[in-house]
């Protein structure tokens, strides 16, 4: 009896181990390098990749990749990359010619049908220009563009049906393929107007007709898969579409909060959690820290994925020092007249902060524009603070006095100063906009030469005035 239990336990261990990984062995003709790598993303909500790399043994290799659930990975050889679909327990053998990577790749073994289809799909639909939105199809008008997408989707579905009729694939893979097709279509359509404007395809922009977005009401959002890149991209652009339709742009303080709220209103289940996690990542990078913290607390209460919450909390902590809405590091420096001036002295005013050097070519190009901007807004509630970072203080002093530069001028010796690190300066000139409470409005303010620089300042002052009057 004990022997039978031991054998059963051993069988269970071996089964579990086999199910917790995928094996890829292969042979490369004309290798491009001496190694091959598979990159996996264990959690689609956490952009942390895991690499499994082996050196070639002559021109052969064997990779053992940890796989606990269905995943889309990347097979990398030198500069060549091909998608690989993996399920636990897959045992694949592949061969390819390094000189013709995608065209010659062929899979055998468990999971071969799925991956041969994926390679064929990539060659046919991702590599052929006629099926791509850019560079030419984006120039089509609304009706023609929809016809292009309809035709492409029809070809993709027909191709999948024809292939799987002769080469059976798993239900999970079929669901993944259908997700890619459906949401690739949806994403290209929902981003069409903005992309058309961005590439200048339409000088006289005409907003889409009322029927253009009707397809959104017919989509089953729960049919998308988290491992489907097209689905993730669509969710991001789906909420952005409605946010922009509400009149908010990415530069607006409430943009990401509105995105997050719309995701809660329009999506449910995994679709909502996927969308909101991605919105939070974007908000941490570009949004207002106060709103980001508020959204994160809401997500934490509703999410059942503690590892995702832990990642977002860590990511926020790493980026909070320079996040919009966080306090700008205070400083006290010597001014051009020898007195000491602190950033906090300007509390109650909007601050346009400029780090520059008298020996910097681009700074010199921006100098007359900085003069013009300062003069243009001299009667507004904004102060222009310029911190010179030259090693030679005399050179800085001469430039400021000789040119009779407007605004407040302070001096800090060199780019190695501690304040430079606190502001995470990589180069000069660098411009920041700091609000009346000493918090970052933006860590990448427009340069003085940008015609919109003054409008950004006036827009903030107008919004601040409206908030004060309420």
From TrEMBL:
Location in the cell: Cell envelope
Which InterPro entries would you find in this protein's record? AhpC/TSA, Thioredoxin-like_sf, Thioredoxin_domain, Thioredoxin_ResA/DsbE_sf
CDD domains, alphabetized: TlpA_like_family
Keyword set, alphabetical order: Cytochrome c-type biogenesis, Disulfide bond, Redox-active center
Domain Thioredoxin: from-to ranges: 322-466
Keyword Endoplasmic reticulum tagged: no
Superkingdom assignment: Bacteria
* Classification via SUPFAM superfamilies: Thioredoxin-like (SSF52833)
Keyword Secreted on entry: no
- This chain belongs to the protein called TlpA family protein disulfide reductase
| Taxonomic source organism | Pontibacter populi
